[in-house]
Amino acid sequence: MNNMKNFFEISWVVTEAEESVLLREFLKTKQISKAALTDIKFHGGALFVNEKEVTVRTPLSKGDVVKVHFPPEKQSESMEAENITLDIVYEDEHFLAVNKPPGMPTIPSLYQPRGSLAAGVLFYYQQHDIPGTFHAVNRLDKDTSGIVLVAKHRFAHSLMSKQQREKTIQREYIALVHGELEQDLGTITSPIGRNPDSIIERIVREDGQPSITHFEKINYLSDHHISAVRLRLETGRTHQIRVHMASIGHPLIGDDLYGGSRDIIKRQALHSETVRFIHPFCNEEVMIKVDLPDDMRKLAII
Predict the structure, then answer these.
(1) What are the structural domains of the chain?
(2) Is it the case that residue 216 has pLDDT exceeding 90?
(3) 0.85 exceeded by the pTM?
(4) Catalytic-labelled residue, pool 39, 64, 141, 294
């Protein structure tokens, strides 16, 4: 089809302050771990200084060009590329952000093996000579709309996983919930775990995982007795917003799994509106924001 490389590469120029350090120490400052170096050494990657393949013991000089070829990535056998139109709202060398419509699963499943975001991204990679597989930084439920951030290679994904553990990725959602919230601002800290009677449902339970959701009432839609709410997550538990809002008596409209009515919208009215993160390769803040989809916008005046 084309001459697409099957590996990702990244390069840096050695500064005066970095002169005389060993390549191993230099790469450590670039957040390349010992495990990553082992992966590079034994699984088809390589290290170069001024286009010459070297070892980690190589001393560096000012102006040297250091290049890392990461090992080739194999696409999962469970995922097939599909020609699916994607609403790409951000892209650079390392990341892709897609505005996922409601009804599209993030990854294929037994119940919906085709039409996933992952399949569309893999096709996009093939068409644009991007040598990666699908690395979702965050996932959304099938019927939740909005931003899914995708890393184009393993290294970028590992750096974003670190940011997630350090809670430096900020995600904001818009939800439409039943009833009028008594508080304009609030925080829900109830732990979340599996419902022992269901393979899908989560519930608030004392032995669940710590879960923190901040909420802000944006608007009250009196005609439908619905509140528009902005939510910010500190943790990313499965169904976290859906469980937390239901636990305080305000289930999402359309979310019949957790007590919401489907009379107005036929899916949980939840939208991933904004993602903010510090770009790990340029150390600058990236902010991505997308509009509400039609079904929620028709109801919510925000």
Answers:
(1) 9-69 (3.10.290.10), 74-166 (3.30.2350.10), 171-271 (3.30.2350.10)
(2) yes
(3) yes
(4) 141
